[in-house]
Amino acid sequence: MTEHSLWRFSRALHRAINERRQEEIEGLLDDDVDWAIYGPIDMFPFFGARRGKAAVLEVLRLIADNIRVRRFDRETIMLGVDSAASMLRYSLTALDSHKPISLRIAHFAQFKADRLASIRVLVDTFDLVEQALR
Amino acid sequence: MTEHSLWRFSRALHRAINERRQEEIEGLLDDDVDWAIYGPIDMFPFFGARRGKAAVLEVLRLIADNIRVRRFDRETIMLGVDSAASMLRYSLTALDSHKPISLRIAHFAQFKADRLASIRVLVDTFDLVEQALR
């Protein structure tokens, strides 16, 4: 049994954010990848929709400029042949303020030939807003 | 091929909210159902965690007291044998103010013998907060 595309993508994603290394993730993005993070776009420049590999690599640099992932726990997961959905809790650190941010996200991903073709992420942003206002 | 539990549950849920009729949904909830809507609990009394059929029927009455569903569009869906996850856009009406509320939700559901055993819902609440503040 081969490894599901999600696991390889997840490792490469966290490496791109925490270590600012994009070699791996670059090979795991479809050229025409359809990407969206639904959340308060005014709060972080990396929320919103992006299209294509170059735009997604750019947004990953923005994410790496703003946060580090301290830990994440996958609460629920569904795997299809070329798809995956999960709900996770993230513990992040905001790089400018050094403040901890904890949030919950849900994502739906589609892969094509082991590359990410589409992802939709929903962020439990109220939690995030509350913490930012403290 | 029999119908997936999700569709029957979805119809019963919307009937419970829009018509305040709980006969159908009552038969589709596991006695020990594990239920959570993640969102700003201060805004709506129906956010948060509930356990057991009686608590969920009560929270459905609260939802019906507060909103009506005008329309919903399922953007993404994953179905397993006894599980389902989807992302949807909802157009709601707040019953007190008659104001439209539009929000995006993600849900992960587990069924056991065609009854809902567990559901986790994440609401794109910032959108909702923004609209409430207008």
Characterise the protein shown here:
The structure is a homodimer of 134-residue chains. Chain A has 134 residues and is α+β, with helices and mostly antiparallel strands. The first copy, chain A, has helices at residues 5-18, 23-26, 53-66, 125-133; strands spanning 29-38, 48-51, 67-79, 83-94, 100-112, 115-123. A six-stranded mixed β-sheet of chain A has the order 2-1-6-5-4-3, with helices on both faces. The mean pLDDT of chain A is 91. Chains A and B meet through β3, β4, β5, β6 and α4 of A and β3, β4, β5, β6 and α4 of B.
How would you spell out the order of helices and strands of chain A? Answer: HHEEHEEEEH
Estimated share of beta-strand residues of chain A = over 45%
Helix content of chain A: 25-40%
N-to-C terminal Cα separation of chain A, in Å? 48 Å
**Major sheet of chain A:** 6 strands, mixed
Poorly predicted runs of 5 or more residues of chain A = none
Assembly category = homodimer
Find the biggest chain interface. A-B, 21 and 22 residues
Taking strands numbered 1, 2, ... along the chain, how are they ordered across the largest sheet of chain A?
2-1-6-5-4-3
Count of DSSP E strands of chain A? 6
Q: What is the overall number of helices of chain A?
A: 4
Mean pLDDT across residues of chain A: 91
